[in-house]
Structures are given as C-alpha cells and as structure tokens.
Design goal:
Length: about 300
C-alpha cells in the first residue's frame, strides 16, 4: 500500500534491505534554510560527510506528490533553485501535497514520518522546533515535539532552536517521555551556542552508548524518538550574550509585524543572520555538518 506513495532511492533501499546504516535528512534546510546556490552546496556536502563516515544519506522531500526517500543531485538542485516557492511541509500538510501532486520541503516532523515509513531510525538535522516564547498565550508549539513523542526516529540536533522557550520545550518533552540526551555534555546546547543554562536528562559520551539506549528503548516497545543534543563545535559557537540580544531584537520585530506560526522561524533566523552580519549562517552550516557526522556514527552502531 505504501508503495503507492513512497519512492525509496535504489541505493537507500539496498542499504535498508542489507541492514546497512542509513541517515535521514530533511529538505526544509535546502529550500528555506539558505539562498541558492549555498543551499545545494551545503546539501551535497552533508550527504558527502555521511558517505565518508560509511553510512548512506537519505534526503527526504516530496516531489510531484511522491514521498521521496533519497534524492538525486538533480532533485536537490531542483529544490534549491525553487527555494521558498516550495511548500514547507509538516504532518498536517502531507496528505494535501500528495493529493495535489505538489512539491514539499519536509520539516523535522514530516521527515521523521517519512523516515519511519521507510524504516530509517536515525535523522540528522540542525535544530528541532519546540515551544515558542509566549506559548502560554499563543499555544504556538511545534509539531516536532508530538512527532518525537510517538515516532520511532532518533533526532541528532544542536538542541532546540535558540529562538524558542527552551525551558518549556524540555518540560513538554518530559511530559511525553521523550529522552533528551547530551552528547559529551550535561548542558542542553542552544543551536548557535553551546550553553543554555538547562540540563539534559542523560549524558552519553560515545555513539555506541546512544545506540544501546535506542535499542533498549525500542526493544521495550517504548514508542517515540529521542533527542540527541550535539553542541556546535567550539570554534563556530557564537557568544551567548550576542545571540541572546539578536534573538530579543528579532522577536520584538516579529511581534510588531504580527508574524506567527510557521512563518515565524524562517523570519527570526533571517533577522538573526542580518543582525549578526551573516556569522549565524556559517554557524548554522557548521553545526549541521557536525550533527550529520554523529548521526552516521550512531546509525553504524545501531546496525551492528
């Protein structure tokens, strides 16, 4: 039945059939994360990092209504050139993209769903969504968190995006039993910075420790994902106070312009990039490279 909707790239299918390590990748970063041609260059480099580690990359997107697990270079180029004209897709949008034969760039939630359908258990990305600041009034909470609560995919990220309310995001994940693991750290990284002031639930110092925990979790039929918070490399980490001020200024402008919902994250990230003179974009790219390398190592351990 799923074949009716799902196209798994031959190299990904072969890897899955032979129990080889596969890492899922999202496509929002291609179409909405940065301008062309930087987006395509970054996407191809991300795939190369995973391949060099000994795993198979599977970039996920929707093209002409087909759920694609693993893209060709031409398809990555197509999404990169089309840019923000591609619909940003979360769980609620999937049936409409399929029914209308439309193109879609998958968020964390949609990537998890499609990865799970294909049988991929590890996903590397930049940062997860979470509880937005002021959510006690707006109820603006990312669908990523509910997906983590019930979809069996581990997400390697640099923590939650620092534009969010990190304390409430951790509380929400705790309520739904989603473990937040710090890779070689006790402190939750906050995307651009290694610091947040919040502790993770568990610290793991090797990919094997993480893979063992995932195996036990799913072996016990404890459905849902795991957040593996991997701090941005020291040399690309931004100053905590600089980023905090940039975020406050960006949030104020978003509030004045009444920018809400799924438009808020791209607006805020773009504003922060402007305020920081573009250095936040370089940090963003480097943390993604760092996360997918770790995701490949975890996927390799998980297949052993």
């Amino acid at each position: 039945m799923l074949e009716k909707y799902l196209d798994i790239h031959p190299r990904v299918k072969e890897a899955l059939d032979q129990n080889k390590p596969v890492v899922a990748l999202e496509s929002t970063i291609i179409s909405h994360g940065m301008p062309y041609p930087e987006n395509v260059k970054t996407a191809l480099e991300v795939e190369k990092i995973i391949t060099d580690k000994g795993a198979i990359p599977a970039t996920i997107a929707i093209i002409n209504g087909r759920l694609k697990v693993g893209l060709s270079e031409d398809e990555i180029e197509y999404l990169g050139k089309k840019g923000t004209a591609v619909t940003k897709v979360s769980r609620r949008d999937l049936p409409f993209m399929v029914a209308k034969n439309d193109d879609g760039a998958t968020t964390v939630a949609a990537t998890m769903i499609i990865a799970d359908l294909a049988g991929i258990r590890v996903f590397g990305t930049g940062g997860i969504g979470g509880v937005h600041r002021g959510a006690e009034n707006t109820f603006d909470i990312s669908a990523d968190l509910q997906e983590l609560a019930h979809t069996d995919v581990a997400v390697v990220c640099a923590g939650a995006k620092s534009i969010l309310d990190l304390g409430l995001t951790l509380e929400y994940l705790e309520t739904y039993g989603v473990p937040v693991v710090g890779y070689q750290t006790e402190e939750l990284p906050a995307f651009y910075t290694r610091k947040s002031g919040f502790n993770v639930d568990y610290r793991c110092d090797t990919p094997k420790e993480i893979a063992d925990a995932l195996k036990a979790k799913w072996g016990l039929n404890l459905n849902g994902g795991m957040v593996i918070a991997n701090p941005i490399p020291e040399e690309y980490s931004m100053d905590f106070d600089t980023i905090a001020k940039a975020i406050d200024d960006a949030l104020k402008e978003a509030d004045e312009k009444d920018i809400k919902g799924k438009e808020s994250t791209p607006f805020l990230l773009d504003k922060i990039k402007q305020i920081t003179g573009g250095s936040s974009l370089e940090s963003n790219i480097r943390l993604v490279y760092n996360n997918v390398a770790l995701a490949a190592e975890i996927a390799i351990e998980l297949t052993k």
